[in-house]
Structures are given as C-alpha cells and as structure tokens.
Amino acid sequence: MKRIPFSIVVPAFNEQEVILRVLESISEIVQAKEILIVDDGSQDRTAQVVGDFIKSHKGVPIKLISHPYNKGYGASLKTGIRAAKSPYVMFFDADGQHHSTDVDALLKALDGYDMVVGQRINSASPLVRRPGMWLLKRLSEYLAGREIPDLNSGFRVVNKAAVERFMHILPNGFSFTTTITLAMFEGGYSVVYVPIQVKARVGRSMVSFRDAYKMLLLILRTITLFNPLKIFLPACLFLFLLGIALFVRDAINVDITLKTVMILLASLIVFLFGLISDQVANLRKDVELHSDLSPDK
Question: 199 and 65, same structural domain?
Fold first, then answer.
C-alpha cells in the first residue's frame, strides 16, 4: 500500500473517562505523521489526562490544542484541520466508539478518492431519534442525488485542501460532518464508504433535537448553495399545481378568487427566484474555478 501522509484530529469535550484509552489506541498508528487532540474547553480533566500522556509518550508526535471555551464539535475539527501539517486529515472521535484497527481499511480505500468515510454497520440511534434521522437521510440523498450510507460518521479521512475550500460554510456544531459530506458530493469530489464496526460510546450523546433542527437547515442551505433548483422547483411545482386546482374550482363557481391568483403568482416568483439562485451558484463555481487555476497560486 502506498504510504499516505496524514494527520489525526481528535475533537474532545469532557472525555476524561475514555480519552486515555483512545490515546493509547491511536498512538499505535505509526503511519500517522502527527496526532492533534483538540480540547474544546472541557470542564473536567480531559486536558490534564492528555498532557500527562504526552509527557510519557514516545513515538508519533502528539499535540494538545485547547480552546479557551466550548466552541463546538465542528469548530474543534476546523482547529485541527488548520493546524494539520499533512495533505490528508483523519477525524477520530474521542468517545471510544472507533477501532484504531480500521484505520488501515480507510487508508487503503483512499487511493483515487478525496474522502473515505467509515460506514457504521452496527450502530443504531435511539428509537426516539430514528424517524428524524431517517427523514434527514432521505432528504440529503434526494438533494445530493445519490445514496449516502452514513450521513454523519465521525470517522473519516479527507483531502485537507478540499475541506479548506468549504471551511467558510462548515458549521461549528455537530452538523459539520453532515455538511462536509454534502459539500464534497456537490463539489464533484470522489467519496467512498468503508464498512466499520463501532463500540458503544462512553457517556451520553451530546446531540439534541435542536441540533437535528439546525442540521435540517444546514442541509437545505448547503444544497441551495450548490444546486438551488432542487429546492425551488419542487416548491414551485407544488404551488403551481395547488393554484391550478383552485383555479379549476373557481372556474366552476365562476368566481376567480384573490387567493388563487396569489398562489399562482407565488409559484411564478419562486420559479424566478430559483433561476436567479441557480445562475448565482453557477457564477460562484466559475469564480472558484478561475481562482483555483490562477497562476498566482
């Protein structure tokens, strides 16, 4: 297997119970160039445990980066990505779910791809969250135009330059992985999924219904940025068909109502907004393409 230079980024927030086990596991990944632990303003002994481990560790360089306060999961990944010295960055969660033995499988699949995602095949969300997660997954697949086996896996390796291109639209919260998945697909990058097994996480999940709501908005915003017609055309079609149905009813009653006219006008306005948004999106892509090809780079 071709040796691929990569950095490991581990976002950690209040993980004192498991961070030592995670460190012992990933410190054995000798092919890594560096390991970056980003302590996201933990209120427990997470930073102290990491610091003590670094003092006694010999091998792959490990660096602790501390946020002065809690910024969020995505913000921690951004910090690690910016600090990484390798062209590829591996995300590895600090909650004890991932097996370090799966690293080789992700690296082997990286040849020819810009992002390799660990697809969790034995992970199940709590029953109360499954309808919402199913809806988010189906919406994402419709908008991306392809199957997405694992929308928000926290175990993946990515091309650093590709991620940096989207850094300005990536959120600071838990929706980071969802957004980068959609951005990579819509940006025309090559993405592949590799099946992995996960262990039960230590501690409780920090994802709330509020995070799910934010994730839904970010999915819509991300696709609107890249392919707005997938949002505007269905809305336009719905309003148009509703308006036609009301028009037929009004014609039978020989009384065209203001509501019918307004709905038909709304469908036209939504359609025009969609066309304008699509042109803006294409112009933005053009600007980015010419920027990438600029001889100054």
Answer: yes
